[in-house]
């Protein structure tokens, strides 16, 4: 096979393979639209590369125009997908300016003032600016993990590849008067090889990011209670142990609040399990909205909940529990008859010294038992019991 043809088919083959791979990923993860954009990007770049080497019956001018339109749309999809993957707002105007400017330069030097060299420079500088725009968007998240660092570096490298490499090759071996011999030039060879390498590296990085997304989702599922939407017992214990360790090292206070829905079994028997599920979900939603991101909130039993509050002493944890108790008992719950009042009891304990999670929960549970025993719909505290050690007085007379 002709070496030039083999090199020309390299990028389309890689692009189609990567596009198909991202399409398969998206078919299993429809909630991640950036995967569909990546699939579209690589699938569109394949005909773009093919039409650089092969000419359609419509003629070389329209063939090159179609090819560069494919490249432009593919670049827009790729940059938007990368930025959206990291939760950043896609800069549509910036993307439109970069790609639109490159395409406008291509059209001008194709139809108004024909010049192949300036067409090459115009398109490459547009794509280079787009790559640097992506790097600028990734800059705030580049320290979040290794994939972010690599993608940030690849975006910068891609920007230099489109601008510095193109300019250097044009200065050294240009200008290009026509397409005759263009596909055997050093510009075309270096462009194909560098784009193939960068496409593979970017795709591998994005595959890794997608795999990490799946792993995080699976971990979240194993640590989340499906009914309440907050942590299950396992997730709560792991998160709380980590928070206790962090607060212990920093010397910050920590408090634990246990909550138990009052007369839940009777409510379940009277109104049905569906109503009981709504009661649990409603209480969990109020708990989640009140705790914020720093605290750990979990459903640790059927109708029992726990909240670990960093930077909170006994007094502030009591205020938190009282606020939740009053807020919850005053609200109505969908699915229950109007006027039906559902309450909860609370036990609060503040950490003593380097106390672990198990003894802290035991003390909070004792306080919760007192709240249940003394009429429910109340908050009870577990006060610190200082340890006393008998020390013999050497001067005492026996």
TrEMBL record:
One term of GO molecular function: diguanylate cyclase activity
Keyword presence, ATP-binding: no
Domain GGDEF: 252-384
Domain of life from the UniProt record: Bacteria
Alphabetic keyword roster: Membrane, Nucleotidyltransferase, Transferase, Transmembrane, Transmembrane helix
Reactions it catalyzes: 2 GTP = 3',3'-c-di-GMP + 2 diphosphate
EC numbers on record: 2.7.7.65
Designated name of the protein: diguanylate cyclase
CDD domains found in the cross-reference section: GGDEF
SMART domains per UniProt: GGDEF
NCBIfam families assigned: GGDEF
Stored Pfam families: GGDEF (PF00990)
């Amino acid at each position: 096979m002709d070496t030039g043809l083999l090199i020309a088919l390299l990028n389309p083959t890689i692009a189609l393979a990567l596009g198909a791979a991202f399409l398969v990923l998206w078919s299993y993860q429809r909630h991640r639209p950036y995967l569909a954009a990546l699939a579209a990007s690589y699938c569109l770049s394949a005909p773009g590369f093919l039409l650089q080497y092969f000419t359609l019956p419509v003629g070389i001018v329209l063939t090159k125009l179609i090819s560069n339109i494919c490249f432009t749309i593919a670049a827009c999809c790729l940059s938007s997908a990368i930025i959206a993957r990291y939760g950043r707002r896609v800069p549509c105007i910036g993307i439109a300016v970069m790609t639109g400017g490159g395409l406008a330069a291509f059209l001008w030097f194709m139809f108004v003032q024909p010049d192949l060299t300036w067409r090459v420079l115009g398109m490459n500088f547009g794509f280079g600016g787009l790559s640097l725009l992506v790097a600028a968007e990734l800059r705030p998240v580049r320290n979040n993990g290794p994939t972010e660092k690599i993608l940030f570096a690849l975006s910068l490298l891609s920007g230099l590849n489109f601008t510095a490499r193109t300019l250097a090759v044009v200065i050294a071996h240009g200008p290009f008067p026509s397409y005759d011999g263009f596909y055997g030039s050093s510009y075309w060879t270096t462009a194909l090889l560098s784009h193939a390498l960068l496409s593979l590296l970017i795709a591998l990085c994005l595959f890794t990011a997608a795999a990490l997304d799946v792993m995080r989702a699976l971990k979240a599922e194993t640590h989340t209670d499906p009914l309440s939407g907050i942590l299950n017992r396992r997730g709560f214990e792991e998160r709380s142990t980590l928070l206790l360790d962090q607060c212990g090292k920093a010397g910050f206070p920590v408090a634990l609040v246990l909550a138990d829905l009052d007369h839940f079994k009777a409510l379940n028997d009277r109104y049905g399990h569906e109503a009981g599920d709504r009661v649990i979900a409603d209480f969990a939603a109020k708990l989640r909205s009140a705790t914020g991101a720093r605290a750990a909130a979990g459903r640790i039993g059927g109708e029992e909940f726990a909240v670990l509050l960093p930077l909170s002493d006994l007094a502030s944890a009591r205020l938190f529990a009282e606020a939740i108790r009053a807020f919850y008992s005053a609200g109505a719950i969908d699915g229950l008859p109007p006027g039906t009042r559902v309450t909860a009891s609370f036990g609060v304990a503040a950490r003593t010294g380097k106390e672990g999670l198990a003894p802290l929960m035991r003390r909070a549970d004792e306080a919760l038992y007192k709240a249940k025993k003394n009429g429910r719909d109340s908050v009870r505290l577990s006060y610190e019991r200082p340890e006393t050690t008998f020390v013999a007085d050497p001067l005492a007379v026996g």
